[in-house]
Amino acid sequence: MRFEKNEMLEDRFNEMLEDRFDYHKVDNAQLLGMQGMRDKCKELAYILCNLVPPGREQSIALTKLQEVMFWSNCGISAGESKSKKIG
What we know:
By secondary structure, the protein is an all-alpha fold. The protein has a domain at 27-80. Helices cover 72% and strands 0% of the residues. It contains 4 helices and no strands. Helix 2 packs antiparallel against helix 3 (56-78). The longest helix is centred in the middle third of the chain and has 24 residues, at 28-51. The chain is elongated. The two termini are 29 Å apart. Mean pLDDT is 85; it is low at 82-87.
């Protein structure tokens, strides 16, 4: 289903919404970067679990590490498109 652009918003905000919620096809270099990020985050997760006792702090730290992985991979997949559209 395709939604219509909101005529009350400035064009740049419509473009931002389109960019944020569209699929970003990635090339091989980006895939390698994303896999590298996942691998390093997983490595850090194991270190974290070995050093931080189970509990609230470990759980929050793992959640934040997942956020790092997620947002990093979003940035990698978006490539240069975000910096060109909205500063």
